[in-house]
Amino acid sequence: MRPTLQFLSDQLIEQIIAEGREIMCKLGIEIHNDLALLLMHNNGAKVDKTASRVYFTQSLIDNALAAVPHAFKLYDVYGNEAVDLSGFNVNFTPGSAAINILDSTTNKFRKPTTQDYVRYAKLMCKMNNIASQSTAMIPSDVHEKISDSYRLYLSLLYCDKPVVTGAFTIEAFEIMKNLQITIRSSKENLKAKPLTIFSCCPTSPLKWSEVTSQNLLDCAAYSIPVEYIAMPLSGFMSPVTLVGTLIQHTAETLSGLVMSQLMNPGTPVLYGGSPAFFDVRYETTPMGSVATMMIDCAYNEIGKYLGIPTQAYIGLSDAKALDAQAGFETSLGAALAALAGINNISGPGMRDFESCFSLEKLVVDNEICGTALRLIRGIEPKEDFPSLPIFEELLREKHLLIADHTRKYFKEEDYIPGTVISRANRSRWEEEGSTTVGQRAMIEIEKHIKAWQPTNLPDNVKKELTVLMENESRKYGMTKLPNID
Amino acid sequence: MNILQEISVQLQQGNPKKVAEFTQQAINENIDTKTILDNGLIAGMAVIGEKFKAHEIFLPDVLLAAKAMYAGMDLLKPLLVKEGIPTIGKVVIGTVQGDLHDIGKNLVVIMLRGAGFEVFDLGNDVSPEKFLETAVKENAIVIGMSALLTTTMPVMKKVIDLAKERHLYGKKKFIVGGAPLSADYAAEIGASAYCFDGMSAVETVKRFTTTSS
Ligand code: B1M
């Protein structure tokens, strides 16, 4: 039996959805996008153009819900299936778009560079419990107008996993889409085998900006999957109660859903978000708050109820160092999210309110993800009945270390972490240098990066990607991309 | 307790009705307008600021106090204008061009207003020209810029460079804030100060407006 977690009854889910829909229809949603307003108007919504406000209709919402796919898959750069976003399947992906990186040598926060990004992408190839990569940080050594597309370019070049990403401007979508079409060789192939997911954010409360709504429409036009990232902040930009925040999250997310499905019915999406229970002491948006995590798991239940695969920013930490807080917040989030069956869990590697990435934390979090993935496989009998033969063997042999039964199941029954987690006795730990988790993580990082092998993407495709990126950078006066190797 | 202390205490308790009542009473008693402002309203907000910094009270308490402050200010404002008493300082503020994050900036605006500053909030996605033109038009000493994206931080430098071009640089103070910012970056682009939260913005603006007056 797969263990699961549930916060909402069906009745409460229905009430929350009904309220969210009523808000969409009666209060309306502000959408700063002419094309979206036109689409809404043509499909029966009342549109107040001067206020950029759309009053949805119940049938508009019903039609979108009828059109949205209940599941979809992501494929790696070669076109092999890599991520299954359906049912209660759980996939981890690193936290995305960090402003800073924690420098392992100086232990200081600083802006990431191309070198950092490449090290990250190489490391991601070896993170066996993290199914996709994300464009985890923003290299600061290229022109700011290409810093969103450039990170996608580096990811596609150095790691074969599919990518969770997003654009910062309307213009950036073009090159980010073209990089993907180059890999798949045609628009049709990209549609058949999605390579990326784009994060598109409504602006709480109840608004869509021009940039993010246009990104959403552009993605729909190419059937590129989108995850809606509504960020209601409880007690500040949304009601303080978890239910009130969920109602707002529903209205903001469903408004995105209607836009996507009007633009291109059947376009794949994730019912996602990054809400937070606002911290009124420090004026921050804590990801490690238990209320934040509960909102995430609960809207995932609403998404599932509506038949839409889900996403959340959970399994990350607000800690500034690789300390006990980092471990506790990340583990609690990852475990809750996995139990709740959130399909795409964005978090590993991230600290400091989604703003600082750390390779050391990524390596530790990979173990947390492995642990969570084991947890949800639950407890199943495996040649345990009848039980007499194995106990006879135990009494006879005095141990089961080399028993067939042991050898067959021991890797399945527990999750065996890498050396970053210390399970040695104290003497051995001392003999091996009395290392901290951070020091062991640094060793792992260097080991993995050293063992990295170039991906098997054909050289001509890699070259084409580079030409595209160079052309884009030239538009902003950069004649040369930073040196990589 | 004298009437000015009453105003301060009621303000700290976030009671706009009482603040308005006592402010009106102080006006009726012919207490000097500037004294009511400084020793009643602003004194109350200063205590709130200290308590917030010491983690004794939280953001909602500050906002409630700010709301109570406005109730008193509404009564004092016409008198201040009539008597030609300048406000304690004017600030032009906005989130820079290309950036839509305005939650932090909005908090800073509330805190500055609560501390008695006259704030011209330009919203988000604000062009360099707009920052400077408004500051000149309103004769504001401080220009406040917020950015949350690494991709929009450079716009702050554009504002400062444009100010240099327009010979405004020495005449205005530029404060910057937002998640990707740092004191180092602020210094690098020639900003006057980096502020990490609303209260630090209030303190910095106070420093700049007192020095310039
Ligand atoms: C003038 O003087 C001063 C003085 C002090 C000043 C000041 C000015 N300005 C700020 N301060 C200071 O005082 C304030 C009060 O204490 C503080 O302000 P803050 O703003 O820091 O604090 C607020 C009170 C609470 N904090 C916040 O409101 C920001 C929280 C995070 C999670 C965040 C939010 C909420 C949002 N976002 Co966005 N967002 C993130 C943020 C993560 C983070 N760690 O910051 C960040 C900044 N966002 C990011 C991104 C990528 C994006 N976001 C986007 C959109 C949004 C929302 C609309 C959903 C929402 C903003 C809603 C709004 N009305 O502002 C998009 C941007 C579109 C655009 N062009 O602007 C989009 C591009 C995502 C997308 N693909 O759609 C990332 C930036 C990446 C980067 N390297 O630049 C990000 C770090 C999250 C992440 N890891 O993905 C201080 O900084």
Oligomer: heterodimer
Total helical segments of chain B = 9
Q: State the share of residues found in helices of chain B, binned by percent.
A: 55-70%
Low-confidence stretches of chain A: none
| Largest Cβ-defined interface | A-B, 23 and 19 residues
Q: What fold name goes in the CATH topology slot of the largest domain in chain B?
A: Rossmann fold
Structural class of chain A: alpha/beta
| Beta-strand proportion of chain B | 5-15%
CATH topology of the domain at 67-375 in chain A: TIM Barrel
What is the rounded Rg of chain B?
18 Å
Major β-sheet of chain B, in short? Answer: 5 strands, parallel
Annotated CATH architecture of the domain at 67-375 in chain A = Alpha-Beta Barrel
H/E element sequence of chain B? HHHHEHEHEHEHEH
Query: How many DSSP helices of chain A?
Result: 17
- The total beta strand count of chain A reads 20
Please name the fourth-level CATH homologous superfamily of the largest domain in chain B: Cobalamin-binding domain
Shape of chain A: globular
Total domain units of chain B: 2
**Fraction of helical residues of chain A:** 40-55%
Enumerate the distinct ligands: CO-5-methoxybenzimidazolylcobamide
Q: Which strand-content bin applies to the residues of chain A?
A: 5-15%
